[in-house]
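Technical note accompanying the year-one report. For the benefit of new consortium partners, we illustrate the data format agreed upon in the data management plan: each record pairs a sequence with a structure-token string. No post-processing was applied to the example shown here.
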Amino acid sequence: MSKAFHSSGDVIADRRAGYARMLAEGGDHAAAADLMNQALELAPNWAAGWELLGSYQEKAGDLAAAIAAWRRLEALDDLGLFGAKLKLAAHGAGSASDGTALSYVEALFDEYAPKFEDALVGRLGYRVPEMLDDMLSAEMVRLGLERFNQALDLGCGTGLMGERLRSKASFLEGVDISAAMIAETARKGVYDRLDKAELVAALNTRPSQADVITAADVFIYCGALGPVLAGVVSALQPGGLVAFSLEAHDGEEPVFLRPSLRYAHGVLATRDALALAGLDVLRFETAVLRFDRGAPITGILVVARRPPVEVTAANDEQDGGNVAA
């Protein structure tokens, strides 16, 4: 599924949209918005055109006009490919759901796949797989673990995390919602198995057998952590590890949606969510994850463990009976 440029069906409208893109690339977003308005007069039901118009108006500083464009987009985009509801929520004109629309994420990464590594690593200084791998390696030494039998890499993308995990795992599985990302990473031969699946569904439909689960910059599209961490716990065997990253904020809100359409999680709220999920925190660090438009993006890096022995009321009663005897 891709949201790459869709024709309006009108040659003149498409031509004006092409000129608008050229103006936007040159930094004249107000002029680009004017041309897109002209294009949309010719093709008023063109969803991709309304997305372009809203983007240009936002960059030109006319947020009220951008919100009006996104409302029109929301009415036209039944599948949610263009993330209109998210754009409205991120700018205070709507309510954010518990997670980013799946169709939007799928379309975003299908389109992004061919240039993903060059953009993320080459231009944005992305180091999350390296940092998570260093933390995991340190914990493996401390816990006396030489190797993982089964590793699961969520949101595997083009395999940046998997390349780090490969030497640590006997069996390495990657899961991603984007077919284009799966195709890109399949060429590398990093994983023993690759599946196209939505994250929570992938977790909730598997037995508790993973020794380690990783999610590098994946939960930033999930909103509330509770359902995701519950799925992680159910997919881990007792004693299994999870390593993941989040974008961070220092406010009181547990989570909020940024204009980037990624979720930022509160530091204290993240600790609470880990505790409620029944995970033991082994490492919890904040660090710069990458840069976005020249600004550092601070995040949270976590390594946690499902307790090796599940403590239940029945166990407590049994232990109590043994002591009394």
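Partners are asked to follow this layout when depositing records. Residues 74 and 84 are 5 Å apart (CA to CA).
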